[in-house]
Amino acid sequence: MSSSHQYMQATNSSGVSSRHGDIEHLSQLSDNLSSLCVNQEYSDVTLIVEGQRLHAHKVILAARSEYFRALLYGGLKESSQSEIELTDAPLNAFKILLKYIYSGHMFLMTLREDVILDTLGLAHQYGFQELETAISDILHQILALRNVCAILDTARLYGLNQLIKVCHSYLDSHASEILCHESFLQLSQASLVDLLQRNSFFAPEVEIFRGVCAWCRANEDCDDLVMNCVRLPLMSISDLLSVVRPAGLVRPDALLDAIAERTIVRNSSLPHRGQLAMDENVASPRMGAKVVAGELLEALLDGDHTNYDMERGYTRHAINGLGDQGIIVKLGTPSIINHIKMLLWDRDLRSYSYYIELSIEQKDWVRVIDYSHYACRSWQYLYFQNRVVQYIRIVGTHNTVNKVFHLVAFEAMCKVKIPRMINDIIVPQYNVATLDCSASVIEGVSRSRNALLNGDTKHYDWDSGYTCHQLGSGAILVQLGQPYIISSLRLLLWDCDERSYSYYIESSVNIWDWEMVVDKTRESCKSWQTIRFSPRPVVFIRIVGTHNTANEVFHCVHFECPSCDKEDLNKWTSSSKSSSDLINTVNSNDAIQPTETATEAEELTVDSGDSSD
């Protein structure tokens, strides 16, 4: 073995080399460069900060910072100077930054918070973006009432949006505490105005008013903009007269306007504040939520959406018509929500219609979802614009089996993004004709239950993997879980030989009134079919075959709406079928002809259960 090879093995085993044949002595390099920091040896420039002279090396400064590269080698007057005064740099923070420039290391946890903020400012000024991000991350970890206002002001000064967001979130969740804290008085006017304008800065408005009064007295140069951000109409008339009026900081006409707005304007139109818990279910007992109207109240919010049947596991109300109180969920505290997810009882193929209203105090209700004219089943995914609410009312208007509305599970939250909507109906950018989106095949024949919607476009043959119906009798009928605005669809016709089909497709929202989507009864169609049409609300899609060049059965392998690219097929669907879904398994190598009549195939069967409940 050569001596060089022995050396490489030795360096590997000692950990000096990170990979075979490489040698790294970065720690020694860092130590050697660090020894030059504020060292007169080899120094060719002196930086003067707060009167103190700091020896430095142009080439190191320029290599580490675009700012210093331009300053020292960019043709400015400083390029020819041996001494440069930095007028806006705090000395302690600059020394820490200079050490970082030479070593690549910085340890902040032992430093005072004001020094950390000064260091952040220098990192921003001199273009050390990675350092700026790293310091921001550390500030995230040490947020507290004593420092959050100073950190917010610093983040605003340097445009650190992520740090601003974290500070706002912290202040939102500690609103009542920060209003009474001495650090609140040091908050800049711009930061305070931004904070007060947030609907999620949630505290009783009278507490906010008292906090703003204290801030105004401590900052005498403030203007009316701050007090104008206090939402006086949210305060009781008693507080307006006994707290606001004696303070002398609100003009009499503004006080009268607030009293008038409080008295005349609908409560739902007032600019309410509420807690904001992003992507967290606020309709849970852990968050103080409870069901206050309906029957079998304890079931709805228990978090169990699997163990339910005809006798248990749901909350319900009788459908009597106008004046139904419905099921009412009271949140633990007024909250900002824009999304509701709920499970309608779905142990058979029944459908429900319903609407949802929101309120702050159960007197003034705002309807955000109205599906009273649509057939809905199973999981419902509902979105609307952000609203502050404490009461949520779900009122069933129809059940295709009986006169009872059954709700198994319920969640409410605020999502970062909501899908595109037309009125209160989603315009999906993904395939919603899937089991995950509560779609189902309610008419048609197949050996494999849900074959049409399982996303499998490869595993089909003469005997399985398709849904069919007899020509001249019946159809293939797909029901989506809820109404969607649809403008395209795609289907795969059975194509294991050269046969062709003719067909037409209709859509409906209530299974009684149908609208033609496409008429291909005079065309010969094979394999993939992509259909585009004017946008419309859709719940039901009826596919009716009219001709097959091989036999008297229409076969469809896959259906999706809206039409999606192949790579998106499995985004919302399961990539494989459960063995429990297979009614009859046939070896794919067996050369069996497809059924010549629909009655030869096994029909889709779903236990309807007892409909008397």
UniProtKB/TrEMBL annotation:
Residues 43-110 form the BTB domain. PROSITE patterns: BTB. It comes from the Eukaryota. GO terms for cellular component: cytoplasm. Residues 599-613 have a biased composition (Acidic residues). GO terms for biological process: adult locomotory behavior; circadian behavior; modulation of chemical synaptic transmission. It holds the Pfam family F5_F8_type_C. Residues 581-594 have a biased composition (Polar residues). This is BTB/POZ domain-containing protein 9. It comes from Photinus pyralis (Common eastern firefly).
